[in-house]
Amino acid sequence: MGASTRRVHPPNDSPAYGSSRLRAPRQPLHLLPGRLAELTAPLLAGETIGALDHDLTRQHDGEPLGERITISGRVLDEDGNPVTGALIEVWQANAAGRYAHRSDQHPAPLDPNFSGAGRCLTDAEGGYRFITIKPGAYPWRNHPNAWRPAHVHFSVFSSAFAQRLVTQMYFPGDPLFAQDPIFNAVPDEDGRRRMVARWSLELTEPEWSLGYAWDIVVAGREATPLDDDASE
Amino acid sequence: MRLPLTPSQTVGPFFRIGLSTTIGSHVVGEGTPSAVRISGQVLDGVGEPVPDALIETWQPEGAGRCATDEEGHFAIVTIKPERNGEGGAGTDAPHLDVSIFARGLLTRLVTRMYFPDEREANDADPVLEPLTAEERSTLVAVSEDGGLRFDIHLQGARETVFFDR
């Protein structure tokens, strides 16, 4: 999957993203012809996911401020197979654009009722669902007057090393896309579009919350460089 | 027809909020016979420690995860993986698959950590074989204080060998 993977994922050498300058490797990547590890041990030894871990609005005594939303979709591999039992972890800023992290210096209010982290395991169809509030945009110091578009960080951890993915889910129609070097580091427009969730009437609960649909596609288990070369 | 992949994005500076506790730094307990502590430091292109990186180790026996501290240090306790097959030429030596995530990295980096007490197996390993001695040395941990040390240089003269995946 080497060549096609490189075109989908953003190159680490993306100078417009300032933090990459001293951290992106300068040497070409080496080919790894060997198998990549699959876990045979349980992913979460002795660890259970709590029944409310997917609901970021119910982790405190009160409700967080903000626009209540549901984010739901499926995790599939590139052959269309559901990725079941995968650990999905999410983290995000609060409605004011502030992370509950001591290093976040944005002078926006913290919300005592919002920690901004959730997790769940995908079901037999690869499905997942989170209930949260819509995160706010926030400033950062990458370039003058830089603002990140609203996003939720997603981590997908299945039993296959090749499927490991950390990405960000964005919201449709965000005016901040055009000036964001992280979003635009993804080289092709279709790729960028695949990081943007779709507003969904089906997932929207009447008189309660807005719904967003977002599917995630990770590498296939049997992906080989030869397959990709043949299809190109 | 294959579905197009979802692109990767950086973990950013605040990943500890979401990636802190679910998977831990102990693949096996400290008291496990043959448990080995692997510690190291993540360094950037000017040799400064990277205090906001996440290291994950993978092997059939389990996965480990550790965020770096203020000095860029991480530590994971695990065991040496079982060898695949009979060994000998063309067989991978025991190793850990390693992912590195950090602010500044838009896509995870993938490398391997080999064991210094497997010199014969390492010499026959098909991934190490085509590398120069200098490149190879970035992938083999060194024995230190009863454990193993595996530093990761993201960039610079001693840049770690990273793999396409």
Let me know the number of strands of chain B: 9
Low-pLDDT parts of chain A are 224-232
The H-and-E topology of chain A, N to C, reads as HEEEEEEEEHEEEH
Number of helices of chain A: 3
Largest sheet of chain B, if any? 5 strands, mixed
* Low-pLDDT ranges of chain B: none
- Rg of chain B (C-alpha, Å): 16 Å
Tell me what portion of residues of chain B adopts beta-strand conformation. 25-35%
From the 3D structure, determine the CATH topology of chain A: Protocatechuate 3,4-Dioxygenase, subunit A
What is the terminal separation of chain A in angstroms? 11 Å
List the helices and strands and how they pair.
The complex is a heterodimer of chains A (232) and B (165).
Chain A: H1 2-8, E1 68-77, E2 87-92, E3 117-121, E4 127-133, E5 138-140, E6 146-148, E7 151-157, E8 165-170, H2 189-193, E9 198-199, E10 210-213, E11 216-218, H3 225-231
Parallel strand pairs in A: 1-10, 1-11
Antiparallel strand pairs in A: 1-4, 2-3, 2-7, 5-6, 7-8, 9-10
Chain B: H1 16-19, E1 36-43, E2 53-59, E3 62-67, E4 73-78, E5 95-102, E6 109-114, H2 119-123, H3 133-137, E7 142-144, E8 147-149, E9 152-153
Parallel strand pairs in B: 1-8, 1-9
Antiparallel strand pairs in B: 1-4, 2-3, 2-5, 5-6, 7-8
Task: Report on this structure.
The complex is a heterodimer of chains A (232) and B (165). Chain A has 232 residues and is mostly beta strands. Chain A has one domain (2-10, 50-101, 108-226): Sandwich (Protocatechuate 3,4-Dioxygenase, subunit A), CATH 2.60.130. Chain A is 8% helix and 24% strand. In chain A, strand 5 and strand 6 form a beta hairpin. The longest helix of chain A is centred in the first third of the chain and has 7 residues, at 2-8. By secondary structure, chain B is mostly beta strands. Chain B has a single domain, classed as Protocatechuate 3,4-Dioxygenase, subunit A (Sandwich). Chain B has helices at 16-19, 119-123, 133-137, and strands spanning 36-43, 53-59, 62-67, 73-78, 95-102, 109-114, 142-144, 147-149, 152-153. In chain B, a hairpin with a 2-residue loop joins strand 7 and strand 8. The longest helix of chain B is centred in the C-terminal third of the chain and has 5 residues, at 119-123. At the A-B interface, helix 1, strand 2, strand 3, strand 7 and strand 8 of A face helix 1, strand 2, strand 5 and strand 6 of B.
